UniProtKB/TrEMBL annotation:
Pfam families: DUF3391, HD_5. This is DUF3391 domain-containing protein. Residues 171-367 form the HD-GYP domain. GO terms for molecular function: phosphoric diester hydrolase activity. Signal peptide: none annotated. InterPro entries: DUF3391, HD/PDEase_dom, HD_GYP_dom.
């Protein structure tokens, strides 16, 4: 029997794994409550939390049972619980459909609370990991140039170069969720083609870590992030790297990069059918509007859905020939607006939880008027990350570059003295370039 108790008003009717149906008397009515045991990482808006994995009095929740209507509630639950119980009938979301739609042939992912989920925690502080993250980044930059140059020179991709680029990034992200992204924010960018491959590799590692995938699957997913756009290097120069809108023939040529990439990967003998599948579907969209095959919904494999979100996020938050970079916070809002249209809603929510409301490396303006850069997330409270302050309130550079933990600042008794994030800023706001400041 899974948890629970017997009392005068009712008892357990059946208790299959992770599903509990409770019968009881409420007034003059016989009621049945159907519960689902769900890990906190798999929660979504519209779920009604009826029980925790600990007594309510050990948490700050005022109501013993509530409907989730924002990501902040999920972040708070994560601080206190590893799993909770959902009342299926009181939930406005279809709980079973949510778990099925997030499912994967690999049952380990936390998305379905499957067997074998891996729980990752930061093993080192950001400051400790930065030297290793720098080594991984510099190594990946060198190898990414080699990989792209090999394609442009009609040489076969080197499986060894791909592995040597991907694995140190994965190792760094597993040790510390923030260090690599903090370092990237302080670094001069390579050309978009190189930096996009490296960023997507790291983002894939972070997303896989967040979902509790085993390390070997994180490596495969990150390899997909590194190689998903490799076919673009085989296109004629100038096909996509100009600021004008593409005409029909150019659009067709650009979209051919998916098939070209698959051919390059197959010729090199790199990866599995899973890797080829995720690369071939990262431009498919939830509503069927993507390419090359117009797949929709669950027709798109899970890892292809994940890479589609990652690809779009990094593209929109990067400076390209035809558009300036947008604030990471703004990009996440854009992805959220496209949930269940271009991208699966539950995955967008998980991706937002993975990166935080204000992703590491973002510029923000504080309530004091000072400008800061996000240095690391506070997993317990995503609205209160650690930051490094770049300017004084008049926006002049503050050479002290002091660090603040906004979670601790939020606990200051006097609300008037609490420091919080007032708004997100686009890259380069107030003429600031963190890489130029060399923090």
């Amino acid at each position: 029997m899974t948890g629970g108790h017997d009392d005068a008003s009712g008892g357990w009717l059946k208790t299959p794994q992770s599903c509990i149906i409770v019968a009881g008397i409420a007034g003059d009515r016989f009621v049945e409550i159907e519960e689902r045991k769900i890990e906190v990482e798999a929660l979504a808006r519209g779920m009604f939390v009826c029980r925790l994995d600990r007594p309510w009095v050990e948490t700050p929740f005022l109501l013993q049972g509530f409907l989730i209507d924002n990501v902040e509630q999920i972040d708070q639950l994560r601080r206190f619980c590893s799993h909770v119980y959902i009342d299926v009938h009181k939930s406005t979301a279809d709980v079973d459909q949510h778990l099925r739609s997030l499912g994967t042939s690999h049952a380990h992912a936390r998305l379905g609370g499957g067997v074998g989920s891996v729980s990752y925690a930061n093993r080192v502080d950001v400051e400790q990991e930065v030297p290793l993250a720098r080594r991984a980044r510099d190594n990946a930059r060198s190898l990414a140039r080699r990989i792209v140059d090999d394609v442009r020179e009609h040489r076969r991709l080197s499986p060894e170069a791909v592995t040597d680029a991907v694995e140190p990034i994965v190792e760094s992200v597993i040790r510390s969720a923030d260090a690599f992204f903090w370092l990237e924010a302080l670094s001069k960018r390579d050309s978009y083609n190189y930096s996009h491959a490296i960023n997507c590799c790291a983002l894939a590692a972070s997303f896989g870590r967040h979902l509790g995938l085993p390390k070997e699957l994180i490596v495969e997913l990150s390899t997909g992030g590194m190689l998903m756009d490799i076919g673009k290097a085989a296109l004629p120069e100038g096909t996509i790297d100009h600021g004008n809108s593409l005409d029909a023939s150019q659009l067709k040529a650009m979209r051919s990069h998916v098939g070209l990439g698959i051919t390059l990967i197959e010729q090199a003998g790199i990866g599995s059918l899973e890797l080829l599948s995720m690369v071939s579907t990262h431009h498919e969209r939830h509503d069927g509007s993507g390419y090359p095959n117009g797949l929709s919904g669950s027709q798109i494999p899970l890892y292809g859905r994940m890479l589609g979100i990652i690809d779009t996020y990094d593209a929109m938050s990067s400076t390209r020939s035809h558009q300036p970079a947008k604030a990471r916070h703004e990009v996440l809002q854009t992805l959220y607006r496209e949930r269940d249209r271009l991208f699966q809603g539950q995955l967008v929510e998980q991706f937002t939880q993975c990166l935080g409301v204000y992703p590491t490396g973002s510029l923000v303006e504080l309530s004091t008027g000072e400008v800061a850069i996000i240095m690391a997330q506070n997993p317990a409270r995503r609205l209160f990350p650690r930051v490094t302050v770049l300017t004084k309130s008049d926006k002049s550079i503050d050479p002290a570059f002091r660090q603040l933990d906004l979670l601790l600042e939020s606990m200051t008794p006097d609300p008037a003295n609490q420091i919080r994030i007032a708004r997100a800023l686009p890259p380069g706001a107030y003429g600031l370039d963190a890489a130029e400041l060399y923090l």
